[in-house]
Amino acid sequence: MTVQSNGRLLDKVAIITGAGTGIGEAIAHKFFHEGAKIVACGLKSDPVLDVVNKINSMGGKAVPFQGDLSQEQTAKAAIDFAISEFGRIDVLVNNAGVFLFAGETQEYETKSFDETILNNIRTVFLMTKYALPHLQKSKGNIIAAGSEAGEIGIPYNTVYGGTKAWVHAFIEGVAVEQAKYSVRANCVCPGPVDTAWTHRQSGPMNLKMEKSLIAATPMGRRGTVEEIANVYAFLASDEASFVTGALWFVDGGITKSKGPIGLDALGKDVRDEPEGKILKDLEHTQDGLKNKNYKSA
Q1: Whole-structure pTM over 0.90, yes or no?
Q2: What whole-number distance in Å separates Cα of residue 130 and Cα of residue 83?
Q3: Contact by Cβ (8 Å): 276, 43
Q4: How many whole angstroms separate alpha carbon 255 and alpha carbon 250?
Q5: Nearest-angstrom CA–CA distance, 167 and 165
Q6: CA-CA to 59 of 20 to 30 Å: which in 80, 173, 218, 256?
């Protein structure tokens, strides 16, 4: 695929945090296909350069920024870098985050708690703080990664759910506060998605947690990263010009379900993941926890 000449994000400049793997990689590709210029951010250990090189090889315009965005000077430097490269910022995607532990709360390691707070909360605050003056000039928008866990909580990683509840409330407040500047702010709140986080082989979940996660989803499957990125693209575009302060649940119905209703979907077409348009171009869907200090249940 190549960039669309009439893409919904044509010539918009988007900063995407956590762009090296999983949903972030998919957002970067989706935005590229919609015409955006990309500043792909990630940790130095993340395959950000792979994502940037792939997009540029397909005719896009993407530049990398690597560093720990939970550190104030690094977050500010990322914003300054975007301005120096493209002269403006239209969209900030606060996607970066971690899912490091699976276990009961009394077993939750304080080190994992602190790291989760840094990556899931402090990064969102700092990037938003330093991007807002530029977004006010461009009348741009912010999209943050929420979660169904931020709405209904999540056992065996209660801290993760708590951080996402904070993101929901923070973005809702930003939306109301910044509306007078024509800046919009929304959350995309995924349910179980087909990334490293939801597979016991590559993340902290055990077999029981993995099975119950799917069973609790009415559609009986994980979402794909492209299905999540599609919603980000809509919210980032002018088509969503009257949408602000919203929590968009892209969760296969898990937020509204009661019990293992997903078992009813066994053998039905609803359980088949769509082939999508950009999935074949993604190389790091399952790499989100590589080089991260997570603990399995």
Answers
A1: no
A2: 11
A3: no
A4: 9
A5: 5
A6: 80
- Strands of 62-66's sheet in order across: 62-66, 37-42, 13-16, 91-94, 141-145, 184-190, 247-250
Q: Is 130 a catalytic residue?
A: no
Helices (H), the chain: 22-33, 48-57, 72-86, 110-117, 123-138, 149-152, 158-178, 207-215, 225-236
Quick one: pLDDT at residue 201?
A: 66
pLDDT, tens digit, 9 for 90 and up, residues 31-67: 999 999 999 999 999 999 999 999 999 999 999 999 9
Looking at the predicted structure, is the pLDDT value of residue 258 above 80?
A: no
Question: How far does CA 250 lie from the centroid of its chain?
Answer: 12
- C-alpha span between 287 and 225 (Å, rounded): 13
φ, ψ dihedrals at 128, nearest 5°: -65, -45
User: Are 117 and 125 contacting, i.e. CB atoms less than 8 angstroms apart?
Assistant: no
Of 45-59, 92-106, 212-226, 280-294, give the range with the top mean pLDDT.
45-59
Active-site residue identified among 130, 160, 232, 294? 160
Mean pLDDT, range 207-236, rounded to an integer:
86
Contact 31, 233 (CB under 8 A): yes
